[in-house]
Known about the structure:
By secondary structure, the protein is an alpha/beta fold. The protein has a single domain, classed as 3-Layer(aba) Sandwich (Rossmann fold). The chain has helices at residues 3-24, 26-29, 36-44, 76-85, 103-109, 122-135, 171-175, and strands at residues 65-68, 71-73, 93-97, 114-119, 140-144, 157-162, 177-187, 194-201, 207-215. The chain is globular. The termini are far apart.
Amino acid sequence: xxxxxxxxxxxxxxxxxxxxxxxxxxxxxxxxxxxxxxxxxxxxxxxxxxxxxxxxxxxxxxxxxxxxxxxxxxxxxxxxxxxxxxxxxxxxxxxxxxxxxxxxxxxxxxxxxxxxxxxxxxxxxxxxxxxxxxxxxxxxxxxxxxxxxxxxxxxxxxxxxxxxxxxxxxxxxxxxxxxxxxxxxxxxxxxxxxxxxxxxxxxxxxxxxxxxxxxxxxxxxxxxxxx
Length: 227
Protein backbone atom coordinates (compact mmCIF):
# COMPACT_ATOMS: atom_id res chain seq x y z
CA UNK A 1 0.00 0.00 0.00
CA UNK A 2 1.39 3.39 -0.99
CA UNK A 3 1.69 6.32 1.40
CA UNK A 4 -1.15 8.11 -0.39
CA UNK A 5 -3.38 5.06 0.01
CA UNK A 6 -2.52 4.79 3.72
CA UNK A 7 -3.43 8.43 4.28
CA UNK A 8 -6.68 8.02 2.34
CA UNK A 9 -7.59 5.00 4.45
CA UNK A 10 -6.76 6.95 7.62
CA UNK A 11 -9.06 9.77 6.51
CA UNK A 12 -11.90 7.31 5.95
CA UNK A 13 -11.43 5.94 9.47
CA UNK A 14 -11.37 9.48 10.83
CA UNK A 15 -14.67 10.31 9.11
CA UNK A 16 -16.21 7.20 10.70
CA UNK A 17 -14.90 8.24 14.12
CA UNK A 18 -16.34 11.73 13.73
CA UNK A 19 -19.69 10.22 12.80
CA UNK A 20 -19.67 8.11 15.94
CA UNK A 21 -18.78 11.09 18.14
CA UNK A 22 -21.53 13.18 16.51
CA UNK A 23 -24.07 10.58 17.60
CA UNK A 24 -22.60 10.47 21.12
CA UNK A 25 -22.79 14.27 21.56
CA UNK A 26 -26.27 14.73 20.09
CA UNK A 27 -27.83 15.75 23.41
CA UNK A 28 -25.50 18.79 23.57
CA UNK A 29 -25.32 19.76 19.91
CA UNK A 30 -28.76 18.72 18.70
CA UNK A 31 -27.08 17.11 15.68
CA UNK A 32 -26.86 13.32 15.54
CA UNK A 33 -25.13 13.47 12.17
CA UNK A 34 -23.17 16.06 10.24
CA UNK A 35 -23.88 17.00 6.64
CA UNK A 36 -22.44 14.65 4.03
CA UNK A 37 -20.72 17.62 2.41
CA UNK A 38 -18.86 18.39 5.64
CA UNK A 39 -17.73 14.79 6.14
CA UNK A 40 -16.68 14.57 2.51
CA UNK A 41 -14.56 17.71 2.97
CA UNK A 42 -12.89 16.17 6.02
CA UNK A 43 -12.26 13.09 3.88
CA UNK A 44 -10.55 15.15 1.18
CA UNK A 45 -8.31 17.52 3.14
CA UNK A 46 -4.83 16.04 3.78
CA UNK A 47 -4.52 16.79 7.51
CA UNK A 48 -1.00 15.33 7.52
CA UNK A 49 0.06 18.40 5.51
CA UNK A 50 -1.13 20.70 8.33
CA UNK A 51 0.44 19.13 11.42
CA UNK A 52 3.92 19.88 12.76
CA UNK A 53 6.84 18.28 10.94
CA UNK A 54 7.41 14.78 12.32
CA UNK A 55 3.84 14.53 13.63
CA UNK A 56 2.33 13.11 10.44
CA UNK A 57 1.88 9.66 11.99
CA UNK A 58 -0.70 11.14 14.39
CA UNK A 59 -2.40 13.40 11.85
CA UNK A 60 -5.58 11.33 11.63
CA UNK A 61 -6.02 10.67 15.34
CA UNK A 62 -9.15 12.49 16.54
CA UNK A 63 -7.22 14.78 18.87
CA UNK A 64 -5.80 18.31 18.77
CA UNK A 65 -2.06 18.58 18.08
CA UNK A 66 0.51 21.24 18.95
CA UNK A 67 1.78 23.22 15.94
CA UNK A 68 4.24 25.53 17.71
CA UNK A 69 4.02 29.12 18.95
CA UNK A 70 1.68 27.93 21.71
CA UNK A 71 -1.02 27.09 19.15
CA UNK A 72 -2.82 23.89 18.18
CA UNK A 73 -4.57 22.29 15.23
CA UNK A 74 -8.08 21.56 16.47
CA UNK A 75 -9.54 18.11 17.07
CA UNK A 76 -11.10 16.92 13.78
CA UNK A 77 -14.47 16.32 15.45
CA UNK A 78 -14.53 19.97 16.60
CA UNK A 79 -13.53 21.11 13.11
CA UNK A 80 -16.42 19.11 11.66
CA UNK A 81 -18.88 20.30 14.30
CA UNK A 82 -18.04 23.99 13.93
CA UNK A 83 -18.19 23.70 10.16
CA UNK A 84 -21.51 21.88 10.28
CA UNK A 85 -23.03 24.46 12.65
CA UNK A 86 -22.61 27.12 9.96
CA UNK A 87 -25.09 25.31 7.65
CA UNK A 88 -23.06 26.20 4.58
CA UNK A 89 -24.69 25.96 1.15
CA UNK A 90 -21.66 26.42 -1.13
CA UNK A 91 -21.63 30.03 -2.35
CA UNK A 92 -20.66 31.79 0.90
CA UNK A 93 -17.84 34.17 1.78
CA UNK A 94 -16.58 33.06 5.19
CA UNK A 95 -14.36 34.88 7.69
CA UNK A 96 -12.17 32.70 9.92
CA UNK A 97 -10.27 34.09 12.90
CA UNK A 98 -7.25 32.02 13.91
CA UNK A 99 -5.64 30.46 10.85
CA UNK A 100 -3.11 28.37 12.75
CA UNK A 101 -1.67 25.79 10.37
CA UNK A 102 -4.60 26.31 8.01
CA UNK A 103 -6.49 23.03 8.39
CA UNK A 104 -9.87 24.53 9.32
CA UNK A 105 -9.59 27.09 6.52
CA UNK A 106 -8.86 24.28 4.04
CA UNK A 107 -11.95 22.37 5.16
CA UNK A 108 -14.03 25.53 4.70
CA UNK A 109 -12.45 26.15 1.30
CA UNK A 110 -13.72 22.76 0.14
CA UNK A 111 -17.27 23.94 0.88
CA UNK A 112 -17.59 27.65 0.07
CA UNK A 113 -16.69 30.24 -2.55
CA UNK A 114 -14.15 32.25 -0.54
CA UNK A 115 -12.42 32.04 2.82
CA UNK A 116 -10.81 35.06 4.48
CA UNK A 117 -8.62 33.96 7.36
CA UNK A 118 -6.72 36.07 9.91
CA UNK A 119 -3.75 34.91 12.00
CA UNK A 120 -2.03 36.96 14.70
CA UNK A 121 1.20 34.89 14.73
CA UNK A 122 3.08 36.04 11.66
CA UNK A 123 5.16 32.89 11.24
CA UNK A 124 2.06 30.68 11.27
CA UNK A 125 0.15 32.93 8.91
CA UNK A 126 2.96 33.03 6.36
CA UNK A 127 3.45 29.26 6.57
CA UNK A 128 -0.28 28.72 6.07
CA UNK A 129 -0.35 31.05 3.07
CA UNK A 130 2.44 29.08 1.40
CA UNK A 131 0.79 25.77 2.32
CA UNK A 132 -2.46 26.87 0.67
CA UNK A 133 -0.52 27.83 -2.45
CA UNK A 134 1.23 24.48 -2.63
CA UNK A 135 -2.00 22.55 -2.12
CA UNK A 136 -3.94 24.58 -4.67
CA UNK A 137 -6.37 26.36 -2.34
CA UNK A 138 -6.71 29.50 -4.42
CA UNK A 139 -9.97 30.58 -2.77
CA UNK A 140 -8.31 31.32 0.60
CA UNK A 141 -6.92 34.76 1.47
CA UNK A 142 -4.66 35.16 4.51
CA UNK A 143 -4.12 38.27 6.58
CA UNK A 144 -1.67 38.72 9.47
CA UNK A 145 -3.29 40.86 12.16
CA UNK A 146 -5.75 41.32 14.99
CA UNK A 147 -8.73 39.03 14.63
CA UNK A 148 -10.80 41.18 16.99
CA UNK A 149 -11.00 43.80 14.23
CA UNK A 150 -12.13 41.31 11.62
CA UNK A 151 -11.63 42.23 7.95
CA UNK A 152 -13.73 45.40 7.39
CA UNK A 153 -12.65 45.90 3.78
CA UNK A 154 -14.14 42.53 2.80
CA UNK A 155 -17.22 42.62 5.05
CA UNK A 156 -19.99 41.66 5.28
CA UNK A 157 -19.55 37.88 5.50
CA UNK A 158 -22.12 35.12 5.18
CA UNK A 159 -20.54 33.26 8.09
CA UNK A 160 -17.85 33.81 10.72
CA UNK A 161 -15.82 31.20 12.56
CA UNK A 162 -13.45 31.91 15.45
CA UNK A 163 -10.97 29.19 16.41
CA UNK A 164 -9.53 30.82 19.54
CA UNK A 165 -11.47 31.81 22.63
CA UNK A 166 -12.25 35.44 23.49
CA UNK A 167 -13.67 36.14 26.95
CA UNK A 168 -16.69 37.80 25.36
CA UNK A 169 -18.19 38.08 21.89
CA UNK A 170 -16.20 40.51 19.68
CA UNK A 171 -18.73 43.08 18.54
CA UNK A 172 -16.80 43.95 15.37
CA UNK A 173 -17.21 40.37 14.16
CA UNK A 174 -20.94 40.42 14.83
CA UNK A 175 -21.20 43.69 12.89
CA UNK A 176 -19.37 42.15 9.94
CA UNK A 177 -21.81 39.22 9.81
CA UNK A 178 -24.56 39.57 7.21
CA UNK A 179 -28.21 39.51 8.27
CA UNK A 180 -29.22 35.88 7.98
CA UNK A 181 -25.64 34.78 8.76
CA UNK A 182 -24.23 32.44 11.37
CA UNK A 183 -21.18 32.74 13.63
CA UNK A 184 -19.56 29.97 15.69
CA UNK A 185 -16.93 30.57 18.36
CA UNK A 186 -15.70 29.40 21.76
CA UNK A 187 -16.15 31.88 24.61
CA UNK A 188 -14.40 31.86 27.97
CA UNK A 189 -11.11 32.37 29.77
CA UNK A 190 -8.04 30.26 29.16
CA UNK A 191 -7.76 27.29 31.55
CA UNK A 192 -11.34 27.90 32.66
CA UNK A 193 -14.77 26.90 31.42
CA UNK A 194 -15.27 27.68 27.75
CA UNK A 195 -18.43 27.17 25.73
CA UNK A 196 -18.79 26.70 22.00
CA UNK A 197 -21.40 29.29 21.07
CA UNK A 198 -23.59 29.78 18.00
CA UNK A 199 -24.78 33.25 17.03
CA UNK A 200 -27.50 33.60 14.40
CA UNK A 201 -28.31 37.04 13.00
CA UNK A 202 -31.82 37.34 11.60
CA UNK A 203 -32.88 39.39 8.58
CA UNK A 204 -33.59 42.38 10.82
CA UNK A 205 -30.08 42.24 12.33
CA UNK A 206 -31.15 40.81 15.68
CA UNK A 207 -28.98 38.07 17.16
CA UNK A 208 -29.84 34.81 18.89
CA UNK A 209 -27.12 33.20 21.01
CA UNK A 210 -27.08 29.47 21.78
CA UNK A 211 -24.61 27.48 23.90
CA UNK A 212 -23.54 24.30 22.12
CA UNK A 213 -20.83 22.35 23.95
CA UNK A 214 -18.07 22.71 26.59
CA UNK A 215 -14.71 23.09 24.81
CA UNK A 216 -11.05 24.02 25.40
CA UNK A 217 -9.32 26.45 23.01
CA UNK A 218 -6.23 28.64 23.15
CA UNK A 219 -7.09 32.25 24.08
CA UNK A 220 -7.82 34.86 21.46
CA UNK A 221 -5.41 37.78 21.87
CA UNK A 222 -5.10 41.28 20.48
CA UNK A 223 -2.32 42.24 18.09
CA UNK A 224 -1.18 44.83 15.58
CA UNK A 225 -2.89 45.22 12.22
CA UNK A 226 -0.95 43.89 9.22
CA UNK A 227 -1.75 43.18 5.59
